Amino acid sequence: MSDARRTHRWRGILVLTLGAAGVGLLAKRPLLLLLSTLGVVYAVYPRLSSVSEPRLDVERRVSEENPQAGTAVDVTTTVRNVGDRPIFDLRVVDGVPPALAVTEGTPRFGTALRPGERASFSYTMEAKRGRHRFEAATAIARDPSGGHEVEVEVETETEVDCTTDVGEAPLRSQTLDVTGQNPADSGGSGTEFHQTRSYRRGDPVGRVDWNRYARTGELTTIEFREEQTASVVVVVDATPGAYRGREGEPHAVVAAVGAAQQLAETVLDGQNHLGLSVFGRDDLWLPPSSGRRHRLRVQELLATHSAFEARPPASETTVDVEAQVETLLARLSDNTQLLVVSPLLGDDVVEAVQRLEAERHRVTVISPDVTVSDTDAGGRALATIERDSRLRRLRQSDVTAVDWETSEPLSATLRRRTGVVHG
């Protein structure tokens, strides 16, 4: 893609030249006439010259392709002239992902390149949660006079993936009667020992405990813990109260959407069925399913749906959470469990979770903590106390609640809580 145009850099020189020539004639000064001749040359040259489209190759390297949120990512971009003509004046603007901020250096660079020559420039970005694809680099080449320029875009596939795998999703024991990878409460065929029971006519011979029979003469059958598929719905809290964050950091909804992306990938990787919904914003319902097409649909919704916008909702568009719970209950099948990602900054989400748990849908809450910062601890002390109280209320209602300090990866929090979140 290219765009050639005039810069009109020498537009004023012709006026000055004619003026100098007129004064030289009237005043009979040969020196002014000579200077006006040189001005004519400068004014006419850009009209006779031209610039061809540059042939460029751009290579971009990042210091970390899978950084943690908040870390610095160094970017080095190398531009090479692969054409057979020199480029006298080249300006390059790298295609920094729109959601990432440059914290050091600049993605802009100017140079001149002979055929086959290359030049590099570097800058630093701050990583944020999500997948961030670089846009095409924009290059502007000018002719020696600077009177013409050509703009081209050079595509180079580069991506920074800040959606670290959470390792293992915090699923509970509610599963479907379909073979999968999640341990179920019932015994049967599987790989993990569950219990032994008295032999029943028709039990497979291979599951008889022959060692025990040799010792005691008693026939018993070994049962293994069955592995089944879970039906999971990830619900993101996008209520107005969730649009709060620490100074200089993304608000809780941004953190929740990033966590939902990680959880969705992990749930689907475990051969489970996954659905998607939201509290507090436009109605969003993606029924639980699996497969490559469904995975792409989940990613698309989390990245583009209006319910996950970074801006808080207008007051007239806010949706009643209690009504959303009633609608959600009507949509859920009996064996569906929920992963709710919420900062717990309001009682409405707590009441919604308690209602869902009371209707025999196992609920796990992942709660990003945005209430405390070292510089503003006093101002948010009340919010911290209220949030801690909501966490206690949920746990007293048999809801699994994971307190996630957003300064560390979600995967680290879940690994530390493994013994708790699988209850």
Automatic annotation (TrEMBL):
Region (Disordered): 176-198
Record InterPro entries: DUF58, Ig-like_fold
Pfam families membership: DUF58
Keyword field: Membrane, Transmembrane, Transmembrane helix
Domain DUF58: 196-366
Transmembrane segment boundaries: 12-45
Protein name as annotated: DUF58 domain-containing protein
The species this protein was found in: Haloarcula pellucida
